Amino acid sequence: MTTRSVTITDNATGKSVECPVHEGNYGAPVIDLKNVYKELGMFTLDIGYASTAACRSAITYLDGEEGVLMHRGYPIEQLAEKSTFLEVAYLLINGDLPNQKQFDDWVHVIKMHGMTHEHLSRFYQGYRYDAHPMSVLAGVVAAVASYYHDTTDIYNPNDRRLTAQRVIAKMPNLVSKIYRYGSGLPFVYPDNSRGFVENFMYMMFSWPTEPFVANPVAVRALELLFILHADHEQNASTSTVRLAGSAESNPYACISAGVATLWGKAHGGANEAVIQMLQEIEKPRNIRKFVDRAKDKNDNVRLMGFGHRVYKNYDPRAKIIRKACHDLLDEMHLNQPMFEIAMELERIALEDDYFISRKLYPNVDFYSGLIYQALNIPTNMFTPMFALARSAGWIAQWMEMLSDDDFRIGRPRQLYIGAKQRDYVAINSR
Ligand code: ACO
Question: How many Å separate Cα 410 from the centre of its chain?
């Protein structure tokens, strides 16, 4: 890391502070503000952390202006074409792609951790059959903590590694049980003769009385979605996992906090919201009217699946997934009227000055919901699918944070705009 510096001067007092500037390997340099309060008695205000780097990280790099996304230096396009979800998870956690022996060991260890404690299955019964799957997921992920008291010493690298393996291995099992419970179907144990994604489909969709044969096109489509969702730098849910982890919290509770954040429709909940929006539009002839509502500041409608805090160019994941979406629908001979509406909506929005001038492009969620739908995954299960994949990134980022020499609790400051000091008045005098 090379350093230069920036001087910040308080024009009112003439006091200055020299702040070191750190340069990473890519991206904007960052100004280190830790001495600003000490020297000037001021904090910095950056609502929504739009210009604040909250950590150093070597996992994922993205350039929103150029539409670039890389994990550990590997472009997402290459990983999407050539890799598998488990290999990407290994890469995120370990920093390099595995050799054959390392990969075989990794696959084996993930299989060995795929079961959940039998008592955990009873947690599901506490939920109503129609509970939102993200609510159930937040609960059952946190519940995993109760089975591993002896192996969650966050300062022990072996415990951290074991926790990462358990999180990645158990998520498909935990997620599939949510669907099975809501559908009145018996839970299914993992089948270790199957690959990671196929095994997940088996736990989700197999019927107790029938052999289960997965459609390879569907398996590959889901694998691709898992790869594309595995990590995405310091987004809201990842930052939540880091913040919770910075308080030295239990790792499963931290992942549960990530699930809670991902649930929001401005974040992971958008894929579900896209389908609801397309259903609301109903017919191609209603698209223009809907787009007009999204542009109207007096109407709180937004085009779901459009826009991104960081990407001000085409989301590179959306480019990959758009093609996969076409291929899947062609190969499975599905005629999806909803897909037609989506394509027409995309065309109209991309030619509209409102969206062009604000650099609002379709994001990954615009297409992922369409693929999930083609795979018969119910709409309310879309965000848990996202969480399943993102758990690899969450746990990798959590591990990285704990091994950072500068690790300390995250504690933002505030600009207080509330009432000035006043005296308590008895209730009968107010
Ligand atoms: N439809 C219509 N207008 C939009 C949209 C949209 N989807 N997104 C942003 N805008 C407009 C805003 O109204 C604003 O207009 P203005 O400058 O005239 O006031 C301008 O574009 C900038 O928008 P911001 O809200 O400042 O952008 P921000 O970076 O804060 O928000 C976000 C990003 C939350 C993703 C937003 O674009 C959005 O709500 N999109 C729809 C939800 C969605 O798809 N979320 C998924 C994100 S990807 C993910 O989490 C995996």
Answer: 20
The angle, 0 to 180 degrees and rounded to 10, between the axes of the packed helices 337-350 and 270-281 is 100
Asked if residue 366 lies in contact with residue 342, where contact means CB atoms within 8 angstroms, the answer is: yes
* Largest separation between any pair of C-alpha atoms in the chain: 79
Burial 272-295 (b: 16+ CB within 10 A, else e): bbbbebbeebeeeeebeebbeebb
Ligand 1 contacts CB of residue 358 (under 6 A) = yes
306 CB under 6 A from ligand 1? Answer: yes
Give how far Cα 117 sits from Cα of 147, 193, 205, 218, 394, Å.
7, 20, 21, 29, 22
Alpha carbon 419 to chain centroid, angstroms: 37
Amino acid at 201: M
Give yes or no for a contact between 194 and 202, defined as CB atoms under 8 angstroms apart. Answer: yes
The DSSP-derived string for 252-270 is: HHHHHHHHHHHTSTTTTTH
Catalytic residue list: 308, 365
- Rounded to 5 degrees, φ, ψ at 212 are -110, 120
DSSP state of 306: B
Q: What is the mean pLDDT of each run of 10 residues along the chain (430 residues)?
A: 85 96 95 95 95 96 93 97 98 98 98 97 94 97 95 95 98 98 96 98 96 92 96 97 97 98 89 91 94 95 91 87 82 75 91 94 88 89 96 98 93 96 97
Atom of ligand 1 nearest to the CA of 274: 44
Nearest partner of 179 among 428, 380, 427, judged by Cα: 380
| Confidence (pLDDT) at 376 | 87
